[in-house]
Amino acid sequence: MKLFIDTANVEHIRDIASLGILDGVTTNPTLIAKEGRDFKTVLNEITSLVDGPISGEVISDDAQGMIKEGRDIAKMHPNMVVKIPMTKEGLKAVSTLANENIKTNVTLVFSANQALFAARAGATYVSPFVGRLEDTLHDGIEVIRDIRDILDLYELDTQIISASIRTPQQLFRSAQAGAHIATVPYAVFEKAFKHPLTDKGIDAFKADWEEAFGKSK
Ligand code: E4P
Predict the structure, then answer these.
(1) Does residue 106 register a pLDDT over 90?
(2) pTM
(3) Does residue 191 have an active-site annotation?
């Protein structure tokens, strides 16, 4: 499973990219607003940090508006992906942009039917929101599994981005369920790196070394 980061914070992107584990970036209007910076400036900076798919989201409600915004986003950089909400207008925009070879990521997906429609419209990616589903006591991982089964059964090329991840557990369960990609918030990356036994082990190795050879190596 590939790993994207779900943020518009360039410092966080730089940090995770430096580890060599980052395949792409997703943003949304909330994440851009949180940074308090201009949309295009932030996205341009991100394209210079990560050589992989970078989603920028449209804010129009109607297909024509989304198509216009989508073309502008796509022109910014070859790695840009146009993120479009899962509505009927959104699907019209996805199919038009797909015919122009513009990559799209259909967002705010909460069911396998929505994902199937997005895939049939020509979406490059679909983003089921695991965390928001599980916040309301639905099984978000089951939705990932259902979508993967359908995409495989009908040999559809659309890739699943497991989104709205809140916990390290949702991250590895997304991988088990067959998500092609997970988009992970910085705070979840931070938690998932750690294990108390790793820290304990490092402390013990250090203490044993120092007892035998002193402080300097
Ligand atoms: C998807 O790409 C969205 O940016 C994101 O995962 C939403 O997550 P949230 O539910 O934490 O807002």
Answers:
(1) yes
(2) 0.96
(3) no
